[in-house]
Protein backbone atom coordinates (compact mmCIF):
# COMPACT_ATOMS: atom_id res chain seq x y z
CA UNK A 1 0.00 0.00 0.00
CA UNK A 2 1.27 3.47 -0.92
CA UNK A 3 0.63 6.06 1.80
CA UNK A 4 1.57 9.11 -0.30
CA UNK A 5 -1.34 11.51 -0.84
CA UNK A 6 -1.83 12.81 -4.37
CA UNK A 7 -2.89 16.39 -5.15
CA UNK A 8 -6.38 15.03 -5.80
CA UNK A 9 -6.45 13.44 -2.32
CA UNK A 10 -5.26 16.68 -0.73
CA UNK A 11 -7.96 18.60 -2.61
CA UNK A 12 -10.48 16.13 -1.25
CA UNK A 13 -9.14 16.70 2.28
CA UNK A 14 -9.53 20.48 1.87
CA UNK A 15 -13.07 20.07 0.57
CA UNK A 16 -14.18 17.93 3.53
CA UNK A 17 -12.26 20.05 6.05
CA UNK A 18 -14.02 23.17 4.81
CA UNK A 19 -17.39 21.43 5.04
CA UNK A 20 -16.60 20.31 8.60
CA UNK A 21 -15.53 23.79 9.66
CA UNK A 22 -18.94 25.07 8.63
CA UNK A 23 -21.08 22.15 9.78
CA UNK A 24 -19.50 20.22 12.69
CA UNK A 25 -21.62 20.48 15.86
CA UNK A 26 -20.54 23.00 18.49
CA UNK A 27 -21.06 20.54 21.33
CA UNK A 28 -18.26 18.02 20.83
CA UNK A 29 -18.48 16.25 24.19
CA UNK A 30 -17.95 12.65 23.18
CA UNK A 31 -20.95 10.32 23.22
CA UNK A 32 -19.70 7.12 24.75
CA UNK A 33 -19.35 4.36 22.19
CA UNK A 34 -22.08 2.26 20.70
CA UNK A 35 -24.36 2.04 23.71
CA UNK A 36 -25.26 5.57 24.66
CA UNK A 37 -26.51 6.28 28.13
CA UNK A 38 -29.55 8.37 27.29
CA UNK A 39 -32.13 9.22 24.64
CA UNK A 40 -30.52 12.67 24.46
CA UNK A 41 -27.16 11.09 23.49
CA UNK A 42 -28.92 9.05 20.80
CA UNK A 43 -30.61 12.16 19.38
CA UNK A 44 -27.26 13.97 19.25
CA UNK A 45 -25.68 11.09 17.33
CA UNK A 46 -28.60 10.89 14.92
CA UNK A 47 -28.57 14.64 14.31
CA UNK A 48 -24.86 14.51 13.48
CA UNK A 49 -25.38 11.58 11.08
CA UNK A 50 -28.20 13.41 9.31
CA UNK A 51 -26.15 16.59 9.06
CA UNK A 52 -23.31 14.63 7.46
CA UNK A 53 -25.84 12.99 5.13
CA UNK A 54 -27.18 16.39 4.06
CA UNK A 55 -23.75 17.11 2.58
CA UNK A 56 -23.35 13.60 1.09
CA UNK A 57 -20.83 12.61 3.77
CA UNK A 58 -22.19 9.25 5.00
CA UNK A 59 -21.47 5.75 3.65
CA UNK A 60 -18.71 7.42 1.67
CA UNK A 61 -17.05 4.18 0.54
CA UNK A 62 -20.29 2.79 -0.90
CA UNK A 63 -20.58 2.88 -4.69
CA UNK A 64 -22.27 6.00 -6.07
CA UNK A 65 -25.15 3.96 -7.46
CA UNK A 66 -26.14 3.11 -3.87
CA UNK A 67 -25.88 6.65 -2.57
CA UNK A 68 -22.24 6.60 -1.48
CA UNK A 69 -19.33 8.61 -2.88
CA UNK A 70 -17.31 5.65 -4.14
CA UNK A 71 -14.25 6.96 -2.27
CA UNK A 72 -10.88 5.33 -2.75
CA UNK A 73 -9.05 3.66 0.13
CA UNK A 74 -6.88 6.70 0.82
CA UNK A 75 -9.79 9.12 0.64
CA UNK A 76 -11.76 6.98 3.08
CA UNK A 77 -8.81 7.14 5.46
CA UNK A 78 -8.57 10.92 4.99
CA UNK A 79 -12.31 11.19 5.67
CA UNK A 80 -11.95 9.44 9.05
CA UNK A 81 -8.80 11.42 9.89
CA UNK A 82 -10.67 14.67 9.35
CA UNK A 83 -13.61 13.54 11.48
CA UNK A 84 -11.18 12.58 14.26
CA UNK A 85 -9.35 15.89 13.91
CA UNK A 86 -12.48 17.83 14.86
CA UNK A 87 -13.40 15.25 17.50
CA UNK A 88 -16.68 14.35 15.76
CA UNK A 89 -16.27 10.69 14.72
CA UNK A 90 -18.85 9.04 12.53
CA UNK A 91 -21.72 8.18 14.91
CA UNK A 92 -22.99 4.63 15.35
CA UNK A 93 -26.68 4.69 14.43
CA UNK A 94 -27.62 1.03 14.49
CA UNK A 95 -26.84 -1.82 12.15
CA UNK A 96 -27.87 -0.28 8.80
CA UNK A 97 -24.70 1.41 7.51
CA UNK A 98 -22.13 -1.23 8.47
CA UNK A 99 -24.10 -4.47 8.41
CA UNK A 100 -27.32 -4.51 6.44
CA UNK A 101 -26.22 -2.08 3.71
CA UNK A 102 -23.16 -4.07 2.54
CA UNK A 103 -25.10 -7.35 2.93
CA UNK A 104 -27.90 -6.08 0.69
CA UNK A 105 -25.36 -4.96 -1.91
CA UNK A 106 -24.23 -8.62 -2.13
CA UNK A 107 -27.55 -10.42 -1.73
CA UNK A 108 -30.47 -8.00 -2.18
CA UNK A 109 -32.77 -7.79 -5.17
CA UNK A 110 -32.70 -4.60 -7.27
CA UNK A 111 -36.00 -3.63 -5.64
CA UNK A 112 -34.65 -4.19 -2.10
CA UNK A 113 -31.52 -2.16 -2.82
CA UNK A 114 -33.53 0.72 -4.27
CA UNK A 115 -36.02 0.66 -1.39
CA UNK A 116 -33.65 0.37 1.58
CA UNK A 117 -30.14 1.63 0.79
CA UNK A 118 -30.90 5.36 0.28
CA UNK A 119 -32.66 5.60 3.64
CA UNK A 120 -29.69 4.01 5.38
CA UNK A 121 -27.40 6.60 3.80
CA UNK A 122 -29.69 9.46 4.86
CA UNK A 123 -30.26 8.09 8.38
CA UNK A 124 -34.02 8.22 7.83
CA UNK A 125 -34.39 4.54 8.74
CA UNK A 126 -32.64 2.86 11.65
CA UNK A 127 -31.92 -0.88 11.60
CA UNK A 128 -31.37 -3.49 14.29
CA UNK A 129 -30.01 -7.02 14.06
CA UNK A 130 -32.34 -9.84 15.12
CA UNK A 131 -29.94 -12.78 15.40
CA UNK A 132 -29.40 -13.87 19.04
CA UNK A 133 -32.02 -15.71 21.05
CA UNK A 134 -32.05 -16.84 24.69
CA UNK A 135 -30.73 -20.28 23.59
CA UNK A 136 -28.87 -19.32 20.43
CA UNK A 137 -25.84 -17.03 20.72
CA UNK A 138 -22.50 -18.63 19.88
CA UNK A 139 -24.45 -21.54 18.45
CA UNK A 140 -26.56 -19.17 16.36
CA UNK A 141 -27.80 -21.85 13.96
CA UNK A 142 -29.86 -23.34 16.81
CA UNK A 143 -32.26 -20.39 16.60
CA UNK A 144 -35.93 -21.21 17.06
CA UNK A 145 -37.87 -18.13 15.88
CA UNK A 146 -40.27 -19.58 13.31
CA UNK A 147 -41.41 -18.03 10.02
CA UNK A 148 -44.22 -19.89 8.31
CA UNK A 149 -44.91 -19.07 4.66
CA UNK A 150 -48.54 -18.32 3.81
CA UNK A 151 -49.19 -17.05 0.29
CA UNK A 152 -47.33 -13.77 -0.17
CA UNK A 153 -46.44 -13.51 3.52
CA UNK A 154 -44.38 -15.02 6.32
CA UNK A 155 -45.87 -15.18 9.81
CA UNK A 156 -43.11 -14.83 12.41
CA UNK A 157 -43.30 -16.00 16.04
CA UNK A 158 -40.45 -16.15 18.55
CA UNK A 159 -38.02 -14.13 20.67
CA UNK A 160 -34.75 -12.31 20.04
CA UNK A 161 -32.44 -10.93 22.74
CA UNK A 162 -29.52 -8.48 23.05
CA UNK A 163 -30.98 -6.56 20.12
CA UNK A 164 -28.97 -3.33 20.12
CA UNK A 165 -30.91 -0.14 19.30
CA UNK A 166 -34.19 -2.05 18.79
CA UNK A 167 -35.91 0.67 20.81
CA UNK A 168 -35.05 3.20 18.07
CA UNK A 169 -35.19 0.89 15.05
CA UNK A 170 -37.62 1.26 12.15
CA UNK A 171 -36.54 -2.08 10.68
CA UNK A 172 -34.88 -5.33 11.75
CA UNK A 173 -33.10 -8.02 9.75
CA UNK A 174 -34.23 -11.21 11.42
CA UNK A 175 -33.01 -14.79 11.15
CA UNK A 176 -35.92 -17.22 11.22
CA UNK A 177 -36.33 -20.96 10.95
CA UNK A 178 -38.35 -21.71 7.85
CA UNK A 179 -37.70 -25.48 7.68
CA UNK A 180 -37.58 -27.19 11.08
CA UNK A 181 -36.96 -30.59 9.45
CA UNK A 182 -33.76 -29.57 7.59
CA UNK A 183 -30.25 -29.73 9.17
CA UNK A 184 -30.04 -26.62 11.33
CA UNK A 185 -27.87 -24.45 9.02
CA UNK A 186 -30.08 -25.19 6.01
CA UNK A 187 -33.56 -24.31 7.32
CA UNK A 188 -32.91 -20.61 8.08
CA UNK A 189 -34.11 -17.53 6.19
CA UNK A 190 -33.04 -13.87 6.37
CA UNK A 191 -36.09 -11.59 6.51
CA UNK A 192 -36.48 -7.80 6.72
CA UNK A 193 -39.14 -6.80 9.23
CA UNK A 194 -40.83 -3.43 9.69
CA UNK A 195 -40.66 -2.82 13.45
CA UNK A 196 -44.05 -1.08 13.36
CA UNK A 197 -45.83 -4.29 12.30
CA UNK A 198 -48.49 -5.41 14.82
CA UNK A 199 -47.31 -8.23 17.10
CA UNK A 200 -43.81 -6.85 17.90
CA UNK A 201 -42.94 -5.94 21.50
CA UNK A 202 -39.60 -4.35 22.47
CA UNK A 203 -38.43 -4.52 26.10
CA UNK A 204 -35.24 -2.67 27.10
CA UNK A 205 -32.45 -4.33 29.11
CA UNK A 206 -30.31 -2.01 31.24
CA UNK A 207 -26.56 -2.68 31.38
CA UNK A 208 -24.43 -2.37 34.51
CA UNK A 209 -23.09 1.01 33.33
CA UNK A 210 -26.67 2.32 33.12
CA UNK A 211 -26.81 2.33 29.31
CA UNK A 212 -29.98 1.02 27.68
CA UNK A 213 -28.51 -0.31 24.49
CA UNK A 214 -30.03 -3.78 24.39
CA UNK A 215 -33.53 -5.14 24.17
CA UNK A 216 -35.58 -8.25 24.13
CA UNK A 217 -37.79 -8.36 21.04
CA UNK A 218 -40.88 -10.56 20.94
CA UNK A 219 -42.65 -11.57 17.70
CA UNK A 220 -46.20 -12.78 18.03
CA UNK A 221 -47.61 -13.89 14.69
CA UNK A 222 -46.01 -10.96 12.83
CA UNK A 223 -47.05 -10.77 9.16
CA UNK A 224 -44.19 -9.87 6.78
CA UNK A 225 -44.42 -9.65 2.97
CA UNK A 226 -42.51 -12.37 1.11
CA UNK A 227 -40.70 -9.72 -0.93
CA UNK A 228 -38.72 -8.91 2.26
CA UNK A 229 -36.87 -12.23 2.06
CA UNK A 230 -33.14 -11.69 1.32
CA UNK A 231 -31.57 -14.49 -0.73
CA UNK A 232 -33.39 -17.80 -1.13
CA UNK A 233 -35.78 -19.28 1.40
CA UNK A 234 -33.87 -21.72 3.70
CA UNK A 235 -30.52 -20.36 2.40
CA UNK A 236 -30.35 -17.46 4.85
CA UNK A 237 -27.32 -18.84 6.68
CA UNK A 238 -25.00 -17.73 3.86
CA UNK A 239 -26.53 -14.25 3.94
CA UNK A 240 -26.20 -14.21 7.74
CA UNK A 241 -22.50 -15.08 7.51
CA UNK A 242 -21.89 -12.19 5.11
CA UNK A 243 -23.34 -9.82 7.72
CA UNK A 244 -21.20 -11.41 10.46
CA UNK A 245 -18.04 -10.89 8.41
CA UNK A 246 -18.83 -7.19 8.15
CA UNK A 247 -19.65 -7.07 11.85
CA UNK A 248 -16.31 -8.55 12.89
CA UNK A 249 -14.53 -6.05 10.75
CA UNK A 250 -16.08 -3.09 12.53
CA UNK A 251 -15.83 -4.76 15.95
CA UNK A 252 -12.15 -3.77 15.96
CA UNK A 253 -10.74 -0.69 14.32
CA UNK A 254 -7.29 0.43 15.48
CA UNK A 255 -7.66 4.18 15.09
CA UNK A 256 -10.33 4.83 17.76
CA UNK A 257 -8.12 3.05 20.29
CA UNK A 258 -5.20 5.31 19.41
CA UNK A 259 -7.32 8.32 20.36
CA UNK A 260 -8.20 6.57 23.61
CA UNK A 261 -4.53 5.89 24.37
CA UNK A 262 -3.73 9.57 23.85
CA UNK A 263 -6.53 10.38 26.28
CA UNK A 264 -5.02 7.91 28.76
CA UNK A 265 -1.65 9.65 28.46
CA UNK A 266 -3.33 13.00 29.21
CA UNK A 267 -5.02 11.45 32.24
CA UNK A 268 -1.65 10.12 33.49
CA UNK A 269 -0.29 13.68 33.38
CA UNK A 270 -3.14 14.98 35.53
CA UNK A 271 -3.55 12.32 38.24
CA UNK A 272 -1.10 11.89 41.12
CA UNK A 273 0.86 8.80 42.06
CA UNK A 274 3.03 8.89 45.20
CA UNK A 275 2.65 12.67 45.34
CA UNK A 276 3.79 13.27 41.74
CA UNK A 277 2.05 13.19 38.36
CA UNK A 278 1.62 9.53 37.42
CA UNK A 279 3.31 10.30 34.08
CA UNK A 280 6.62 10.79 35.93
CA UNK A 281 6.56 7.13 36.92
CA UNK A 282 8.50 5.21 34.26
CA UNK A 283 6.31 2.10 34.75
CA UNK A 284 3.26 4.16 33.80
CA UNK A 285 4.94 5.55 30.67
CA UNK A 286 6.14 2.06 29.75
CA UNK A 287 2.62 0.68 29.99
CA UNK A 288 1.14 3.46 27.87
CA UNK A 289 3.90 3.01 25.29
CA UNK A 290 3.02 -0.69 25.06
CA UNK A 291 -0.63 0.20 24.45
CA UNK A 292 0.42 2.65 21.76
CA UNK A 293 2.53 0.01 19.94
CA UNK A 294 -0.36 -2.45 20.01
CA UNK A 295 -2.78 0.25 18.82
CA UNK A 296 -0.50 1.04 15.87
CA UNK A 297 -0.21 -2.66 14.97
CA UNK A 298 -4.00 -2.85 14.93
CA UNK A 299 -4.21 0.25 12.78
CA UNK A 300 -2.05 -1.37 10.10
CA UNK A 301 -4.00 -4.63 10.32
CA UNK A 302 -7.15 -2.59 9.83
CA UNK A 303 -5.69 -0.91 6.75
CA UNK A 304 -4.93 -4.33 5.27
CA UNK A 305 -8.57 -5.22 5.70
CA UNK A 306 -9.78 -1.96 4.23
CA UNK A 307 -7.69 -2.66 1.14
CA UNK A 308 -9.58 -5.92 0.70
CA UNK A 309 -12.93 -4.19 1.12
CA UNK A 310 -12.15 -1.45 -1.35
CA UNK A 311 -11.14 -4.02 -3.93
CA UNK A 312 -14.78 -5.08 -3.74
CA UNK A 313 -14.08 -8.32 -1.85
CA UNK A 314 -16.23 -9.39 1.09
CA UNK A 315 -14.31 -9.38 4.38
CA UNK A 316 -12.56 -12.63 5.29
CA UNK A 317 -12.18 -14.45 8.63
CA UNK A 318 -9.14 -12.23 9.34
CA UNK A 319 -11.73 -9.75 10.72
CA UNK A 320 -11.78 -12.02 13.78
CA UNK A 321 -8.18 -10.97 14.52
CA UNK A 322 -9.18 -7.31 14.70
CA UNK A 323 -12.25 -8.01 16.78
CA UNK A 324 -10.33 -10.19 19.25
CA UNK A 325 -7.23 -8.03 19.65
CA UNK A 326 -9.02 -4.67 19.72
CA UNK A 327 -11.59 -5.70 22.32
CA UNK A 328 -8.90 -7.19 24.59
CA UNK A 329 -6.60 -4.20 24.21
CA UNK A 330 -9.54 -1.94 25.07
CA UNK A 331 -10.21 -3.98 28.21
CA UNK A 332 -6.58 -3.63 29.34
CA UNK A 333 -6.56 0.12 28.64
CA UNK A 334 -9.73 0.60 30.68
CA UNK A 335 -8.40 -1.50 33.58
CA UNK A 336 -5.20 0.54 33.63
CA UNK A 337 -7.23 3.76 33.73
CA UNK A 338 -8.94 2.41 36.86
CA UNK A 339 -5.49 1.87 38.46
CA UNK A 340 -4.48 5.43 37.59
CA UNK A 341 -7.69 6.88 38.99
CA UNK A 342 -7.55 4.91 42.27
CA UNK A 343 -10.56 5.79 44.47
CA UNK A 344 -11.87 8.24 41.82
CA UNK A 345 -12.61 5.25 39.61
CA UNK A 346 -15.65 4.56 41.79
CA UNK A 347 -17.39 7.79 40.83
CA UNK A 348 -20.22 7.35 38.36
CA UNK A 349 -20.46 8.68 34.82
CA UNK A 350 -21.16 12.43 34.86
CA UNK A 351 -20.43 12.81 38.61
CA UNK A 352 -19.33 16.41 39.16
CA UNK A 353 -16.10 15.42 40.98
CA UNK A 354 -15.07 12.62 38.63
CA UNK A 355 -12.07 13.28 36.33
CA UNK A 356 -13.19 13.36 32.68
CA UNK A 357 -16.82 13.33 33.89
CA UNK A 358 -16.51 9.69 34.97
CA UNK A 359 -16.19 8.50 31.38
CA UNK A 360 -13.47 5.99 32.34
CA UNK A 361 -15.63 4.03 34.77
CA UNK A 362 -18.52 4.10 32.27
CA UNK A 363 -16.23 2.68 29.63
CA UNK A 364 -14.69 0.14 32.00
CA UNK A 365 -18.12 -1.27 32.84
CA UNK A 366 -18.95 -1.44 29.12
CA UNK A 367 -15.61 -2.86 27.92
CA UNK A 368 -16.41 -6.49 28.68
CA UNK A 369 -19.35 -6.25 26.28
CA UNK A 370 -16.90 -5.75 23.40
CA UNK A 371 -15.40 -9.19 24.11
CA UNK A 372 -18.85 -10.81 23.71
CA UNK A 373 -20.58 -8.78 20.98
CA UNK A 374 -20.27 -9.89 17.33
CA UNK A 375 -19.31 -13.40 18.46
CA UNK A 376 -17.49 -13.98 21.77
CA UNK A 377 -13.70 -13.91 21.86
CA UNK A 378 -13.55 -17.65 22.52
CA UNK A 379 -15.41 -18.15 19.25
CA UNK A 380 -12.97 -15.77 17.49
CA UNK A 381 -10.10 -17.93 18.82
CA UNK A 382 -11.77 -20.95 17.22
CA UNK A 383 -12.21 -19.14 13.88
CA UNK A 384 -8.62 -17.91 13.82
CA UNK A 385 -7.31 -21.37 14.71
CA UNK A 386 -9.41 -23.26 12.20
CA UNK A 387 -9.94 -20.85 9.30
CA UNK A 388 -6.93 -18.52 9.38
CA UNK A 389 -4.21 -20.85 10.70
CA UNK A 390 -5.76 -24.04 9.31
CA UNK A 391 -5.43 -25.96 12.60
CA UNK A 392 -7.56 -29.07 13.14
CA UNK A 393 -10.93 -28.60 14.89
CA UNK A 394 -10.57 -28.72 18.69
C1 LIG B 1 -22.72 -5.37 23.45
C2 LIG B 1 -23.47 -6.45 22.75
C3 LIG B 1 -24.30 -6.14 21.69
C4 LIG B 1 -25.03 -7.13 21.05
N1 LIG B 1 -25.88 -6.79 20.05
C5 LIG B 1 -26.59 -7.75 19.43
C6 LIG B 1 -27.53 -7.42 18.40
O1 LIG B 1 -27.72 -6.24 18.07
N2 LIG B 1 -28.22 -8.42 17.81
C7 LIG B 1 -28.03 -9.73 18.16
O2 LIG B 1 -28.67 -10.59 17.54
N3 LIG B 1 -27.18 -10.08 19.15
C8 LIG B 1 -26.46 -9.13 19.79
N4 LIG B 1 -25.59 -9.46 20.82
C9 LIG B 1 -25.50 -10.87 21.25
C10 LIG B 1 -24.17 -11.55 20.95
O3 LIG B 1 -24.06 -11.84 19.58
C11 LIG B 1 -24.11 -12.82 21.82
O4 LIG B 1 -24.10 -12.41 23.19
C12 LIG B 1 -22.88 -13.64 21.54
O5 LIG B 1 -22.95 -14.21 20.27
C13 LIG B 1 -22.69 -14.76 22.59
O6 LIG B 1 -23.86 -15.50 22.74
P1 LIG B 1 -24.49 -15.78 24.18
O7 LIG B 1 -24.57 -14.48 24.92
O8 LIG B 1 -25.74 -16.56 23.99
O9 LIG B 1 -23.42 -16.67 24.95
P2 LIG B 1 -23.21 -18.24 24.81
O10 LIG B 1 -23.18 -18.62 23.38
O11 LIG B 1 -24.18 -18.93 25.70
O12 LIG B 1 -21.73 -18.42 25.37
C14 LIG B 1 -21.45 -18.48 26.78
C15 LIG B 1 -19.95 -18.67 26.96
O13 LIG B 1 -19.52 -19.92 26.39
C16 LIG B 1 -18.48 -19.70 25.43
N5 LIG B 1 -18.63 -20.64 24.31
C17 LIG B 1 -19.80 -20.95 23.68
N6 LIG B 1 -19.55 -21.82 22.66
C18 LIG B 1 -18.20 -22.04 22.63
C19 LIG B 1 -17.33 -22.82 21.81
N7 LIG B 1 -17.80 -23.54 20.79
N8 LIG B 1 -16.01 -22.77 22.06
C20 LIG B 1 -15.51 -22.03 23.08
N9 LIG B 1 -16.30 -21.28 23.91
C21 LIG B 1 -17.62 -21.26 23.69
C22 LIG B 1 -18.65 -18.28 24.96
O14 LIG B 1 -17.45 -17.74 24.48
C23 LIG B 1 -19.12 -17.58 26.25
O15 LIG B 1 -18.01 -17.26 27.05
C24 LIG B 1 -24.88 -8.48 21.48
C25 LIG B 1 -24.04 -8.80 22.57
C26 LIG B 1 -23.35 -7.79 23.20
C27 LIG B 1 -22.47 -8.15 24.39
Please write the CATH class name of the largest domain: Mainly Alpha
- C-alpha end-to-end distance: 36 Å
Name the poorly predicted regions.
Answer: none
Please work out how many helical segments DSSP would assign: 11
Largest β sheet strand count, sense and barrel closure:
4 strands, mixed
Secondary-structure element series: HHHHHEEEEEEEEHHEEHHHH
> Structural class of the secondary elements?
alpha+beta
By CATH, the topology of the largest domain is Butyryl-CoA Dehydrogenase, subunit A, domain 3
Mean pLDDT across residues: 91
Q: How many domains comprise the coordinates?
A: 3
CATH architecture of the largest domain: Up-down Bundle
Hetero compounds: flavin-adenine dinucleotide
Query: What does the overall shape look like?
Result: globular
What would your notes on this structure say?
The protein has 394 residues and is an alpha+beta fold. The chain folds into three domains: 7-93, Butyryl-Coa Dehydrogenase, subunit A, domain 1; 127-234, Butyryl-CoA Dehydrogenase, subunit A, domain 2 (Beta Barrel), CATH 2.40.110.10; 252-388, Up-down Bundle (Butyryl-CoA Dehydrogenase, subunit A, domain 3). 46% of the residues lie in helices and 14% in strands. The longest helix is centred in the last third of the chain and has 29 residues, at 282-310. It is globular and about 75 Å long. Residues 128-132, 137-138, 162-164, 369, 372-373, 375-376, 378-379, 382 line the site of flavin-adenine dinucleotide.
Amino acid sequence: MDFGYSEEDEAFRREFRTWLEQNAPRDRTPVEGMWEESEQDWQRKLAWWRKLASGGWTCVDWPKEYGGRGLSLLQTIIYHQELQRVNCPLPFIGSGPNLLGPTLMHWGTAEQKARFLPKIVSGEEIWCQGYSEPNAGSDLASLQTRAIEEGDYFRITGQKIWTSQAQYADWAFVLCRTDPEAPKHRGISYILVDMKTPGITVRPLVQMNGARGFNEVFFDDVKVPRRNLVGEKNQGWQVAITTLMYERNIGGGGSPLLGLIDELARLARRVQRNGRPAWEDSDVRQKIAEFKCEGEALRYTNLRQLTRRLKGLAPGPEGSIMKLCASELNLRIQSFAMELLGPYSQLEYRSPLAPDEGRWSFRMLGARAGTIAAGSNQIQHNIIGERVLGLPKG
